[in-house]
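Here is the promised in-class demo. Please do not try to memorize the tokens; focus on the logic of going from shape to residues.
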């Protein structure tokens, strides 16, 4: 049976492939499945399966208008030698938790897990829907999405990609990864502003009907690689199912035993994928949402009020420096009883007043979630402590999750086995990580730090870092926020 998608803000519907192509519904809403599907196989059957096999069994339930051949082809092209480990997402047991390492792809961040498959889902969707236009991917990044999307789409035919990032608001390694990106169809633009401004700017370009007509006349159409695209969200559900099957296979848990999932959270897509996995029937107890000093989500889970009217804080976990968590809208729609009118009312309030408040009934629907946050000092302290106790080195985002998990255990005395989503390699944030371990490292250069981290952690330097050591800068455009549309048009020759 075909699973349809509908907008969170109206009755607009689409097939899976149409939703992937559009990225955003025409009313500005996000596409969500009309019903959340269930896993069609017993969890026991997944135990001996490869990542690719689990991916097919999960994704086929969501992407019902893809043939088996189409979907398996997309999966095979995505999860191949780009990943530096055959398992794709290995699990490391350390410090009383299971770290699900989601950073073994081409750009050493969890975004690779979805962005290595999205280009193939998108080009397949274009063929299925007889799209003749060239697809222009437009995305805003707080650091990781940008490079992962660039790497995924570089030189993919009939696509172009434009990435906007906050100049000065990403780590030096993150910036170097983006501005050295090869591919004639890639364009990277720094903006004089923060991530929320970049994201709002991209949404405004998507909503510009005049520009849409101009593009169509020139043979182009926009699509999105941000986590608002359902083609990003569905592949993320896979690794939670895979991690459970892996723990089962290794005898770490019994069949049916519930686990907690801890996710460092910015745009809310990664933890929403865990929520979808739970709804598919995966035995997940608590969904633990970890924030940094930009704790808008923690405050939301505490009070039921979402308020972005606050100082924007630059932290050592920049991928989480976000005050508008776009994917939260999908959860709001669900807890509002799939009421698009109520959801639209709340999202309008967010735009006009910068805040909204959910009802008591909606609040009751959030009982599976726990929110907390880690300060900058706490983030550094836990990196140092885990390294000192175990020799295992984690990045700053994973550290936020590790600290929040400790706070959760202290508050609840809950000893349920827990999987922590380890979302980036420590090599992506070497200075922050090494400074946390010992301030003496601050005197070293960026690539000296890379080599030192490799030495003390006894881990090889990832290829993603090696290849940017001497790579030339190919993208140096920086614009004001109000010049973003012009930057896109210039790149497209309009």
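The designed amino acids, position by position:
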């Amino acid at each position: 049976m075909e699973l349809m998608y509908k907008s969170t803000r109206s009755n607009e519907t689409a097939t899976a492939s149409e939703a992937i192509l559009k990225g955003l519904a025409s009313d500005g809403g996000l596409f969500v499945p009309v019903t959340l599907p269930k896993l069609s196989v017993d969890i026991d059957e997944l135990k001996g399966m490869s990542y690719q096999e689990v991916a097919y069994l999960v994704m086929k339930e969501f992407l019902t208008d893809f043939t088996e051949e189409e979907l398996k082809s997309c999966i095979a092209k995505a999860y191949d030698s780009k990943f530096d480990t055959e398992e794709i997402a290995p699990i490391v047991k350390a410090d009383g938790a299971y770290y699900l390492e989601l950073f073994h792809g081409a750009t050493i961040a969890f975004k690779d897990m979805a962005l290595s498959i999205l280009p193939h889902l998108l080009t397949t969707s274009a063929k299925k829907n007889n799209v003749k236009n060239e697809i222009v991917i437009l995305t805003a990044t707080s650091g990781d999405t940008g490079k992962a999307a660039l790497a995924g789409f570089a030189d993919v035919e009939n696509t172009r990609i434009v990435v906007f990032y906050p100049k000065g608001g990403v780590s030096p390694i993150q910036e170097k990864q983006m501005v050295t990106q090869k591919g004639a169809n890639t364009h990277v633009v720094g903006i004089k502003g923060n991530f929320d401004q970049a994201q709002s700017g991209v949404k405004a370009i998507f909503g510009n009907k005049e520009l849409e007509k101009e593009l169509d006349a020139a043979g182009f159409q926009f699509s999105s690689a941000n986590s608002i695209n359902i083609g990003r969200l569905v592949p993320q559900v896979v690794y939670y199912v895979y991690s459970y099957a892996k723990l089962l296979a290794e005898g770490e848990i019994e069949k049916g035993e519930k686990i907690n999932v801890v996710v460092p959270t910015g745009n809310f897509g990664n933890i929403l994928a865990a929520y979808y996995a739970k709804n598919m029937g995966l035995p997940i107890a608590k969904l633990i949402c970890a924030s940094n000093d930009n704790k808008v989500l923690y405050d939301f889970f505490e009070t039921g009020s979402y308020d972005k009217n606050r100082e924007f804080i630059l932290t050592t976990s920049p991928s989480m420096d976000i005050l508008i968590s776009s994917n939260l809208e999908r959860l709001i729609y669900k807890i509002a009883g799939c009421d698009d009118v109520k959801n639209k009312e709340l999202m309008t309030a967010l735009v006009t007043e910068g805040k909204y408040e959910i009802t008591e009934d909606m609040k009751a629907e959030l009982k599976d979630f726990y929110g907390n946050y880690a300060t900058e000092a706490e983030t550094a302290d836990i990196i140092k402590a885990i390294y000192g106790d175990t020799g295992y080195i984690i990045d700053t985002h994973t550290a936020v999750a590790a600290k929040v998990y400790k706070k959760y255990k202290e508050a609840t005395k809950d000893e349920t086995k827990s999987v922590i989503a380890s979302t980036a390699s420590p090599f992506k944030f070497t200075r922050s990580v090494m400074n946390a371990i010992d301030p003496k490292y601050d005197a070293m250069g960026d690539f000296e730090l890379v080599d030192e981290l490799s030495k003390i952690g006894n881990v090889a330097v990832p290829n993603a870092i090696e290849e940017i050591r001497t790579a030339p800068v190919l993208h140096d455009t920086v614009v004001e926020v109000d010049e973003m549309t012009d930057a896109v048009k210039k790149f497209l020759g309009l």
